[in-house]
């Protein structure tokens, strides 16, 4: 199984518009972060996790082939704002989008023309599928287990796919979810910045503590803002087995 990070940034992306900090002006490509999204692929199956407003830019370098499903973590714009851009992939058939009931309802309101009884010709052919925490679903040769984390007061989904766990926008997680995170090989989890607590996101130290609690062999940090610092400097300070992910990174699992 192959994981490709299409984007590892927070809702504003990096560089942030109008900012002249040393991260936003860095020449290191690792410090350029589009909004969070990832591809999970086997020889038979291709899944997209979230489809934010940078999707078109992110997917252009990738081979053009069928997307078997889109897993939505939650319906905030930086995670679903690119759904209209999946329309070229509809030539392979209807695109199945999987999300919790809250996100499904929000997408019906955000993209009503995609779900109208009489659709305008050319709009994306999207089939919304409700999923629920702890209820596995099968897409191709991949079994996906949704888990629940809290984005502030909003329950959202993370996904376990085999020995991979992908979590973004988490602030807290209930202890009842931890049994579903046993024997994880690769953990992907959010780390917004270093200081200034956020009401809905983990800080870097929170993410490190969570990773050590889970005990994954390898942890990659995502959904990071410019306030986290330079990619190279942050990585030098992280414990062994924990690292900043970067856009375009490919991980074999």
Topology overview:
Layout: E1 2-7, E2 37-41, E3 46-49, H1 55-59, E4 69-71, H2 77-80, E5 95-99, H3 101-110, E6 126-130, E7 137-139, E8 142-151, E9 154-161, E10 164-166, E11 186-190, H4 204-214, E12 218-222, H5 231-237, E13 242-244, E14 250-252
Parallel strand pairs: 3-4, 4-5, 5-6, 10-11, 11-12, 12-13
Antiparallel strand pairs: 1-2, 1-14, 2-3, 7-8, 8-9, 9-10
Distance between the termini: 5 Å
Q: What is the number of helices?
A: 5
> Which range does the strand content fall in?
25-35%
Radius of gyration from the alpha-carbon trace, in angstroms: 17 Å
Structural category = alpha/beta
Order of helices and strands: EEEHEHEHEEEEEEHEHEE
Kindly report the average pLDDT value. 97
- Total DSSP E strands: 14
Strand order of the largest sheet: 6-5-4-3-2-1-14
Helical proportion, percent range: 10-25%
Spans of at least 5 consecutive residues whose pLDDT stays below 50 are none
Biggest beta sheet summary: 7 strands, mixed
The backbone outline, from C-alpha atoms, is globular
């Amino acid at each position: 199984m192959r994981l490709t990070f299409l984007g590892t940034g927070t809702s504003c992306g990096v560089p942030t518009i109008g900012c002249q900090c040393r991260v936003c002006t860095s020449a290191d490509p690792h410090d350029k972060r589009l909004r969070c999204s990832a591809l999970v692929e086997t020889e038979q199956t291709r899944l997209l996790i979230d489809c934010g407003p940078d999707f078109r830019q992110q997917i252009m370098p990738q081979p053009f082939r069928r997307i078997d499903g889109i897993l939505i973590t939650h319906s905030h714009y930086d995670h679903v704002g690119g759904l209209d851009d999946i329309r070229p992939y509809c030539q392979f058939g209807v695109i199945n989008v999987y999300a919790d009931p809250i996100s499904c309802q929000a997408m019906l309101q955000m993209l009503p023309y995609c779900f109208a009884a009489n659709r305008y010709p050319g709009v994306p052919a999207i089939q919304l599928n409700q999923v629920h925490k702890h209820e596995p679903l099968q897409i191709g040769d991949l079994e996906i287990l949704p888990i629940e984390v809290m984005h502030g007061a909003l329950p959202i989904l993370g996904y376990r796919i085999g020995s991979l766990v992908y979590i973004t926008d988490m602030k807290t997680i209930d202890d009842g979810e931890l049994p579903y995170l046993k024997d994880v090989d690769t953990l992907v989890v959010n780390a917004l910045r270093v200081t200034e607590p956020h009401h809905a996101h983990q800080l870097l130290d929170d993410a490190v503590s969570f990773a050590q609690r889970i005990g994954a062999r390898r942890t990659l940090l995502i959904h990071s803002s410019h306030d986290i610092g330079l990619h190279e400097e942050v990585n030098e300070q992280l414990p062994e087995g924990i690292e900043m992910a970067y856009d375009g990174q490919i991980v074999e699992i």
